[in-house]
Write a structure and sequence with these properties.
The strands form 3 sheets. Strands 4-3-2-5-1-6-7-8 form an 8-stranded mixed β-sheet, sandwiched between helices. Strands 12-13-17-14-15-16 form a 6-stranded mixed β-sheet. The chain has 2 domains: about 290 residues, UDP-N-acetylmuramoyl-L-alanine:D-glutamate ligase (3-Layer(aba) Sandwich), CATH 3.40.1190.10; about 130 residues, Mur ligase, C-terminal domain (Protein-Tyrosine Phosphatase, Chain A), CATH 3.90.190.20. Helix 4 crosses helix 5. The protein has 15 helices and 17 strands. By secondary structure, it is an alpha/beta fold. Strand 14, helix 12 and strand 15 form a beta-alpha-beta unit.
């Protein structure tokens, strides 16, 4: 199987959609020799901020010389971004080789009467194989959707984390924050420490009850003392004192947005657990340098203009109301002096685009709506109607490249184009910028 054939075979599984449950991934991994069993890893669940926590923690581990493995989703430009070791994406040749093994294993389990695994399940199996065979000393895994029945929720993690929980994927996870928190809390294991971000009360009650029932030590980020420097500049600087009294003074982040302070706090708490319980040599220098150099493309990623007569470009993959609220807060706090801010917006059909647009309306001057290169993308004409209903001066341009060019013209010199609403949009823009 070539690399192209491997991606085509994986893509063919997309038609199966999302099917919660662990039976398929368990059967598939068993057929592959259960590569997850010997893997030491951290599991990160939540609604928003999972990828940022993974980025911070994995960079801390790299700075400690530990050569961590990482598994995240989705990718922005290339499939290989999903699986990395020591910052290097999985080679295309390894994708082809391991996908061949996964495909053969899938054929075996289906012959035995099991259901065909989904795209995410097959990709997760591929990731476990690569991380296991590469003998990584530690891996950091981002939960896909939910937690309790997510394909990553196998094996025994050294620690878990739950980022803020909010309404997203309501058709699959539940209609209330409490119902969704129940799914996220499904990653909690008996005796395994779980670090929890600041939550809405109903989410925290669910998570705390699940941890207590499992006998899992719970470390609440709310118990930390955060001291901002200069009211959180852009990117933020702050000092942190953990619940056990460990102080980290004047930490500087590479990632933008005040909300990244919370994500960085989770990473620091996880690093402390891995040092204490996992015996990993993580010192203050690794924490400080890791936070200062972590990268997470497409999340408040500011790309300066090529010339003085052009606007800057801000890429942010906010794809739900809470994500858009964080983006709006960032624009209000740190980009308010721009002469003009133009939103370039696209969204998936299952997202509340109308609510997302209403949240962003006060912090941008106009919107250009466009399409997505996936079947689940919401038609641009629908987005245009929703934008106008939200009070926007809206323009519809289905072609993404033309839409970006239009948004840039509208924003003008020293202005700002904000591309958001979907990671697929951000990924397509990044892909086109690299051409």
């Amino acid at each position: 199987m070539t690399y192209e054939q491997a991606l085509a075979w994986l893509d063919s599984l997309e038609s199966l959609g999302i099917r919660p449950g662990l039976d398929r991934i368990t059967a598939l991994l068993a057929r592959l020799g259960d590569p997850q069993r010997d893997l030491r890893f951290v599991l990160v669940a939540g609604t928003n901020g999972k990828g940022s926590v993974v980025a911070f923690l994995s960079q801390i581990l790299r700075e400690a010389g530990l050569r961590p493995g990482v598994y995240t989703s989705p990718h922005l430009v290339r499939f290989e971004e999903r699986i990395a070791i020591d910052g290097a994406p999985i080679p295309a040749a390894a994708v082809a080789e391991l996908t061949t093994e996964v495909r053969d294993a899938v054929e075996g389990v289906t012959r035995d009467g099991a259901q065909t695994p989904t795209y995410f399940e097959a990709t997760t199996a591929l990731a476990f194989l690569h991380l296991h065979r590469s003998r990584v000393p530690i891996a950091v895994l981002e939960v896909g959707m939910g937690g309790r029945f997510d394909a990553t929720n196998v094996g025994s993690p050294l620690a878990c984390a739950i980022t803020p929980v909010s309404l997203d994927h309501t058709q699959g996870l539940g209609r209330t924050v409490a119902e969704i928190a129940t799914q996220k809390a499904g990653i909690i294991r008996s005796g395994v420490p779980v670090v929890v971000a600041r939550q809405e009360d109903e989410a925290m009650q669910v998570i705390a009850a699940e941890a207590a029932a499992a006998g899992a030590p719970l470390v609440a980020a709310d118990s930390c003392r955060i001291e901002p420097r200069d009211g959180f500049p852009d990117p933020p600087r702050f000092s942190l004192t953990t619940p056990d009294g460990e102080r980290h003074a004047d930490l500087a982040l590479a990632l933008r947005g005040d909300h990244q302070v919370g994500n960085a706090t989770l990473a620091v708490l996880l690093a402390g657990i891995l040092r204490r319980d996992g015996g990993l040599p993580i010192d203050e220098r690794a924490i400080r340098h890791g936070l200062a150099t972590a990268q997470w493309p497409g999340r408040l990623e500011l790309l300066p203009a090529a010339g003085n007569d052009e606007p800057d470009l801000l890429l942010d993959g906010a794809h739900n109301p809470d994500g858009c609220a964080m983006l709006a807060a960032y624009l209000h706090r740190h980009q308010a002096t721009r002469p003009r801010r133009v939103l370039l917006f696209a969204a998936m059909r299952d997202k509340p685009a109308d609510e997302m647009l209403r949240i962003l309306k006060p912090v941008v001057d106009e919107v250009v709506v466009t399409g997505l290169p996936v079947a689940r993308g919401r038609p641009p004409a629908d987005l245009e109607r929703q934008a106008k209903d939200a009070g926007f001066d809206a323009t519809c341009e289905p072609d993404q490249a033309a839409a970006l060019a239009l948004a840039r013209r509208r924003a003008g010199a020293r202005g700002l184009v904000v591309a958001s609403g979907s990671l697929y949009l951000v990924g397509e823009i990044q892909k086109n910028l690299r051409l």
